[in-house]
Write a structure and sequence with these properties.
Length: 255
């Protein structure tokens, strides 16, 4: 993980803990950190549904980072951009803003990033988790090199095979829907409000369900092997579950 294979002692700034670097207001260091000290931030309070540059972002999300990167070249980030377990079965509109985070890390001189994920394909949030991880992994190499939309298309075509175009259509509809919401100042959503019916128009859900169910039905008679048919069915149903979740949990708001 670290250069030259050296061992490091880690100063961990986790969750909502804010510890400013030991510096004067003018930026003068009050202590010198040993070269084997790594400062690791785990800012769980960041609202990953908004850009780091958005005025609605938690104001103290990364407030301590500029100071600490001046203290040491060994500054790392443990983020939660790929971890959706807390969100339940809901689409997390992060694709449109993910690039901003990695551009920020690069600008600050942060060279180590670790993204927490659930990590197994049978998990209910796997449908979007592996998409997000693919996009983030590419951006970690160079956030300025890739176009996020192209990365999303690459993944959808590879992961869903002959149903890639249909599933890409669903993702595009979801992202377009939340792009409108993100641009409305009076609309603010976070992990706890992401399941509100107002964020998922009935027409969006029903169109998405229809596309995915058609793909599931078509898969039964596809040229895939029986084993691959089951894998594809599992992937499609995982995404389908996300479309039914708002209907199930907010049924009274829809009907």
């Amino acid at each position: 993980l670290f250069p030259n294979g050296r061992d490091y002692s880690i100063l961990w700034l986790a969750y909502s803990s804010i510890r400013h670097a030991p510096m004067t207001p003018s930026g003068e260091k009050l202590v010198e950190l040993n070269e084997k000290i790594c400062v690791w931030d785990a800012p769980i309070q960041v609202n990953v549904l908004y850009s780091i540059n958005d005025s609605r972002q938690y104001s103290d999300a990364y407030i301590q980072i500029p100071g600490w990167v001046k203290m040491t070249n060994n500054h790392a980030i443990w983020d939660y951009h790929g971890h959706f377990t807390a969100m339940g079965l809901y689409w997390v509109p992060f694709l449109s803003v993910v690039q901003d985070y990695y551009e920020y890390y690069q600008k600050q001189g942060i060279h180590f990033v670790f993204s927490q994920i659930t990590g197994w394909e049978q998990h209910p949030d796997a449908a979007q988790q592996f998409l997000q991880v693919y996009v983030m992994s590419k951006l970690m190499w160079d956030p300025n090199r890739y176009n996020v939309s192209q990365l999303v298309e690459e993944f959808m075509m590879a992961y869903y095979g002959e149903y890639g175009e249909e599933m890409l259509q669903v993702v595009t509809m979801l992202e377009d829907n939340f792009a409108v919401l993100q641009n409305q100042e009076n609309k603010f959503f976070n992990h706890s409000s992401l399941n509100w019916a107002q964020f998922y128009p009935l027409s969006l859900l029903m169109n998405s369900i229809s596309i995915i169910e058609d793909a599931i039905e078509d898969n039964k008679n596809s040229n895939l092997s029986e084993k691959d048919k089951l894998i594809m069915e599992s992937r499609l149903k995982s995404f389908l579950a996300m479309m039914y979740a708002p209907l199930a949990n907010e049924y009274g708001s829809y009907y």
